[in-house]
Amino acid sequence: MSGPVPGGPVVVLASRVRAEEKRIIAALRARGADCVHVDTRTLAGAPAASDRSLVLNREIGQARAAYAGSLLEARGAVVVNSAAATEVCGDKWRTALALGQAGLPVPRTHLALTPEAALAALDELGYPAVVKPLVGSWGRLVTRVADRAMAAAVLEHVAALPSPRAHIVLAQELVAGGRSVRVVVVGGEALGATWHRSEQWRANVARGASARALALRPDHAKLAARAADATGAEIAGVDLIEDAAGRTRVLEVNHGVEFTGFQDATGIDVAARIADHLIARTVRDA
Amino acid sequence: MISCPECEGAVVLAEPPHLNEIVACPECAGELEVVGVDPVALAPAPEVEEDWGE
């Protein structure tokens, strides 16, 4: 027998219990689910087939989230989001690749294997453009380069970073002039949308942008649900970006969606929807 | 109420505190992690790492 035990415990995996995790745990318990919180930092193990837990992976660290998901799946657990989805969503190149292969509109994106090669890629894309690390969130180290001189200087700094992975660079066209939209998707359904208002070009809520409710357009809903599906994410915060002409592209699919700002702006109880989805999975997959 | 391990300021926790919950000390503004709930214990929260995020 495989799959989670019907009515069995739902494990919320997190090393950092934020407002989102507390809301999810409360929503699960309000529905009578046996909800257990496990600190990711305590995990260690070997493959087995005995674990029939349903695990919600809310680990904040990308490396720990990916390996924890892999370990728990190797032990028989069903992990949401899956380890594969966590790997894809946590890597901006693999995300762009998955979205592009699914036929979804994405900004023109080049992968450069060295900072030197990135300069040539940026020349081809044209300026202004964007330089991004492969891994990272909250807009961290994402840089808008206005021209070639600025790009060369930024890439010199990139080359000085100690990690070999940091030397692999994502070069992307700058999509500007429109809104930055966040759509939360749970179980294939787009729940609602916000747009981000920011004083600076990076419209990340983690960088101080404010989330404002936006009526969910059918095209945004469809695009976000397809984007989540393309990456394998059951629960996702999909970032869409509009250009000045109103054309929309998919920028990112966040597998560990932070939804407090979204929930406050829209009034949509995301934690409740996540809890309902998880409980439905314990029945569906059992 | 419990003392901040950094500045000994008074930290008031939501009832009941949750293991691994992050709270801020109102006096030194330091981030603290709830590392025990029975009895309640606080420790400086881990520094934000490079790959943290959504």
Word description of this protein:
The complex is a heterodimer of chains A (286) and B (54). With 286 residues, chain A is an alpha+beta fold. Among the domains of chain A are: 66 residues, 2-Layer Sandwich (Dna Ligase, domain 1), CATH 3.30.1490; 97 residues, ATP-grasp fold, B domain (D-amino Acid Aminotransferase, Chain A, domain 1, 2-Layer Sandwich), CATH 3.30.470. Chain A is built from nine helices and 13 strands. Chain B has one domain: Rubrerythrin, domain 2. In chain B, a hairpin with a 6-residue loop joins strand 1 and strand 2. The radius of gyration of chain B is 11 Å and the shape is globular. Chains A and B meet through loops of A and loops of B.
Descriptors:
heterodimer; A: 286 residues; alpha+beta; Dna Ligase, domain 1; D-amino Acid Aminotransferase, Chain A, domain 1; 5-stranded antiparallel β-sheet; B: 54 residues; mainly beta; Rubrerythrin, domain 2; 5 strands; 0% helix; globular
In short:
With 286 residues, chain A is of the alpha+beta class. Helix content of chain A is 35%, strand content 25%. In chain A, the strands form three sheets. In chain A, strands 11-10-9-12-13 form a five-stranded antiparallel beta sheet, with helices on both faces.
**Using DSSP, what is the number of strands of chain B?**
5
Q: Which percent bin holds the helix content of chain B? A: under 10%
- Assign an overall shape of chain B: globular
Reported CATH architecture of chain B: Single Sheet
Q: Which sequence of strands runs across the widest sheet of chain A?
A: 11-10-9-12-13
Helical segment count of chain A: 9
Structural class, from helix and strand content of chain A?
alpha+beta
CATH class of the domain at 177-273 in chain A: Alpha Beta
Profile the largest sheet of chain B: 3 strands, antiparallel
Could you give the order of strands across the largest sheet of chain B? 3-4-5
Tally of separate domains of chain B: 1
At CATH level 2, the architecture of the domain at 177-273 in chain A is: 2-Layer Sandwich
Over the alpha carbons, how many angstroms does the gyration radius of chain B reach? 11 Å
The mean pLDDT of chain B is 93
Describe the oligomeric state of these chains in a short phrase: heterodimer
SSE order of chain B in H/E notation?
Answer: EEEEE
Number of helices of chain B: 0
For the terminal residues of chain A, how far apart are their CA atoms? 8 Å
Q: Count the strands of chain A? A: 13
Beginning-to-end CA distance, first to last residue of chain B: 32 Å
InterPro entries (chain B): LysW (IPR005906)
Organism (chain B): Actinomadura parmotrematis
Protein name (chain B): Lysine biosynthesis protein LysW
Domain ATP-grasp (chain A): 96-279
